[in-house]
Design brief:
Layout: H1 8-21, E1 28-33, H2 40-53, E2 57-62, H3 80-104, E3 109-121, E4 124-131, E5 136-141, E6 151-159, E7 162-165
Parallel strand pairs: 1-2, 5-7
Antiparallel strand pairs: 3-4, 3-6, 4-5, 6-7
């Protein structure tokens, strides 16, 4: 047993409360796959929590024994291959949840700090920055200069590892 001081239900109540106040609040988590005694149903519950919580990022990693801990000497060790498969599945589910979170920002005005030039084009540049919750946002500049300081960008469609600025329709 991991000796958490909260239940899944209590955790999800907090997530729902946060989402009620700010539906786009970015939540991240770390998940250990294959902790001693983790059953298939325990693992499936973890998958369902990741889907329901809408995490921006999930760091999934396999349990590894730590000397002198109760877990290291537990009899119900999860086989290495099972841990590997579970981490792979968690990563896939997490990627999907992350993409859904990122897409939920489309249409919103985001405060973005430009970081780097992502691409040079004949008509200017595409620059990459991060919004307040560290989601990558790409935008254009008609010259070779990146803007200084925070920019307000209306998020459009998915692009690379984030979102591209919304392009105005030309009539």
């Amino acid at each position: 047993e991991m000796r958490r001081r909260y239940t899944v239900e209590e955790y999800m109540d907090i997530v729902r409360t946060v989402r009620r106040h700010d539906p786009h609040y970015a939540i991240t988590t770390d998940v250990i796959a294959g902790f001693p005694g983790e059953s298939d149903s325990d693992f499936q519950e973890t998958v369902e929590v990741i889907k329901a919580a809408g995490f921006l990022k999930v760091h999934a990693f396999p349990y590894s024994k730590r000397p002198l801990t109760d877990a290291a000497s537990a009899l119900e060790q999860v086989p290495s291959q099972v841990k590997k498969q579970r981490v792979k599945l968690l990563s896939e589910v997490a990627d999907s949840a992350s993409q859904a979170y990122i897409e939920s920002l489309s249409g919103l005005a985001l405060r973005v700090l430009p970081e780097e030039i992502a691409e040079r084009r004949p008509d200017g540049i595409i620059w990459k920055g991060r919004e307040d919750c560290y989601v990558a946002v790409y935008a254009t500049s008609p010259n070779d200069d990146m803007p200084d300081g925070f920019q307000t960008i209306t998020a459009g469609n998915s692009y690379a590892d984030g979102l591209f600025e919304r392009q105005e329709e030309i009539e």
